[in-house]
From TrEMBL:
Residues 174-233 are annotated as: Disordered. Signal peptide: none annotated. It comes from the Eukaryota. It holds the Pfam family Acetyltransf_1. This is N-terminal acetyltransferase A complex catalytic subunit ard1. Keywords: Acyltransferase, Transferase. One of its GO terms (molecular function) is protein-N-terminal-glutamate acetyltransferase activity. Belongs to the acetyltransferase family. ARD1 subfamily. One of its GO terms (cellular component) is NatA complex. It comes from Paracoccidioides lutzii (strain ATCC MYA-826 / Pb01) (Paracoccidioides brasiliensis). Residues 23-168 form the N-acetyltransferase domain.
Length: 256
């Protein structure tokens, strides 16, 4: 199984550089000194990716994975057009692992890292005018456009296509994601506040006093019956004329 990971994901990723250099020398005529790989690895480790085959279970514990592909990328430090953009320095996949979509995945991951980490507006590269396989990948699959032809760009005198691809659509995807996350967070905060307010309201009774517990006994269930009976106590009083009254009349008086 082939994994594609950032070069910086390995604690001692500098140790992978000789394997990357071997992959380059095996497949490409454009070769670099080891210090050039080191320059990319130390300056922009998050922009370069490697395709690796993990060691088998019975392999030595500290054995490094086998590098079967890589993309070496950087940001232009002093762009002539004044626009922040990235550049693909080198892309290579071993012949044993071609036609598996590895090169496309390497390129896409590097492009996304440029857009997210450095806000690059576009990415550029050079390719030989005779390299039809690479042209199909860059132009037809990834969407690069030919900007111009640079005469005798390579050491052997062959011309190169200068190509570029707009990375700003990747900004918008990232911005939309951030906006959606912000809206979700605000919605969750509002929901928690509403729930908290509802709980506070339910903790108070109709006359504004806090709830002091469940009703106790029949008087509690009748909701203030004791107070009502206190007001309606019955008194027996004698009424009538002061003299010559033979009978007594009883009546109820309610205390007002």
């Amino acid at each position: 199984m082939v994994d594609i990971v950032p070069l910086s994901s390995y604690p001692s990723y500098i140790s992978l550089l000789p394997s990357i250099q071997t992959c380059n020398i095996t497949n490409l005529p454009e070769n670099y000194f080891l210090k050039y790989y080191l320059y990319h690895a130390l300056s922009w480790p998050q922009l370069s990716f490697v395709a690796v085959v993990r060691p088998k279970h019975n392999s030595p514990k500290n054995e490094y994975p086998k590098v079967v592909g890589y993309v070496l990328a950087k940001m232009e430090e002093e762009p002539t057009d004044g626009i922040a953009h990235g550049h693909i320095t080198s892309l290579s996949v071993m012949r044993t692992h071609r036609r598996l979509g590895i090169a496309e995945r390497l390129m896409k991951m590097s492009q996304r890292a440029m857009a997210e980490s450095h806000r690059a507006e576009y990415v550029s590269l050079h390719v030989r005018v005779s390299n039809n396989a690479a042209l199909r990948l860059y132009r037809d699959t990834l969407g690069f456009e030919i900007e111009k032809i640079e005469a005798k760009y390579y050491a052997d005198g062959e011309d190169a296509y200068a190509m570029r691809m707009d990375l700003r659509p990747l900004w918008m995807k990232e911005d939309r994601k951030e906006n959606n996350d912000g809206r979700k967070q605000a919605s969750n905060t509002a929901s928690r506040k509403t729930e908290s307010d509802a709980n506070a309201d339910s903790a108070a009774n109709d006359d504004g006093h806090p709830d002091e517990g469940e009703e106790v006994g029949e008087m509690g269930k009748n909701g203030g019956e004791m107070e009502k009976k206190e007001k309606e106590r019955v008194f027996r009083v004698k009424v009538g004329r002061a003299l010559g009254v033979g009978d007594l009349v009883e009546r109820n008086e309610t205390v007002r």
